[in-house]
């Protein structure tokens, strides 16, 4: 039986647990800085986040607001009562020997996120504190031993955990869900959600069952994956692995597995604990939370436009294709810059016919997602670093749309704008790049070229493209590369066919 046949025979049941470090000034229960860019270990620590005896935690209100904000954006319900719990387990980078988390009374219940035309239900979103970070070094050449060090800068950082219902069916859906959630958290300014910095991590729970079975299969967890691309690959691998085991009459073990991105396969790490193994009980050092309707309404008012709404608006308002829209959706700063540029050409739009109105917006989108984005990447610059003001960008686009400058000259002007921030009209004059659109002058040049190339005219009349391109090229050469291509084509058509 082929792998595809095995995949069809067994239905994947997949749920996700996604952790995101929150964007707050301080940690979850103390005043130590929450600074993910700190390079020196063990400087953003204090007796509270290090779990020293006699210290008491204090709830970070900003972290609570950010979790509620994410929950509201995802359509979740916010209860009027919530509390923190102790989750008891020992791990070297957990200073207190337990973690303050939430279990029975999370901040958010329910919600959903639509991806690939399907709505994935969310079970809960809760708030907890992050652990420290283990750094493994070795083996040392002198001692031959490996060493593990602990950096507690991350210990106590506010950590949001989102748990889905087991609604996902494939690696593609897992990747799509994670990437869309990541965008939402960035739009809400809840988290920077940078997976390369460990600010967002995903765990996959997956089991297989036959379609007719009511009972779910044995659940396997794939833990701490730092890329949604890898999460999708891990799911696809695990579907094939478990299918093969079931086909051979073997038993799936409940366990935690890791993902080896080099070998593109999962590997066993340890047996999986159940919730009762953590001995949850209400955190005695923290009061319960009583959440009012006014508090929720204040947070809801600050949500703003989300990725799904921006997609729809860009499609309807700017008539852009989905590929370009997605570039803007995935880079909010770039989308904001695009809209500032478009606002600068509104007056030009109002005085132009409808077709031109559409074309200049598309022109703006093409330049911004093309040359502009390429220059930013080549110079490792941010949008905020650019020298090109939206006003100058708008002026440049109007020049291109009105054929005041050729496409080749436009690239020269635009690169100079990016490098210096100069006004495009000034650059065009200084470099003598203004396009020739004087019909009388162009007619004279065309007549001169035709007179010198009588043998080509016959091929042109027969419809040969090579002849047409040759004549246009010769006229552009005579015009110093500044002739209006559209006018040149029309004049050649007229003069060559009716000499």
Task: Explain what this protein looks like in three dimensions.
There is one protein chain. This protein is α+β, with helices and mostly antiparallel strands and about 500 residues long. The chain folds into three domains: about 5-300, no CATH class; about 305-430, no CATH class; about 440-495, Arc Repressor Mutant, subunit A (Orthogonal Bundle), CATH 1.10.10.410. Helix content is about 40%, strand content about 20%. Strands 1, 5, 6, 7, 10, 11, 12, 13 and 14 form a nine-stranded mixed β-sheet that branches. A three-stranded antiparallel β-sheet has the order 4-3-15, with no helix packed on it. It starts with a helix and ends with a helix. Mean pLDDT is about 90; it is low at about 1-5.
Q: Roughly how much helix do the residues carry, as a percent range?
A: 40-55%
Q: What is the total number of structural domains?
A: 3
Strand percentage, roughly?
A: 15-25%
Please describe the biggest sheet, giving its number of strands, its sense, and whether it closes into a barrel. Answer: 9 strands, mixed
What is the average of the pLDDT values?
A: 89
Taking Cα atoms only, what radius of gyration do you get, to the nearest Å? Answer: 31 Å
Structural class: alpha+beta
Poorly predicted parts: 1-7
Number of strands: 16
Span of the ends, CA to CA: 74 Å
Report the total helices. 17
Gross geometry: elongated
Q: What's this entry about, in short?
A:
The protein is α+β, with helices and mostly antiparallel strands and 499 residues long. It is built from 17 helices and 16 strands. It is elongated, with a radius of gyration of 31 Å.
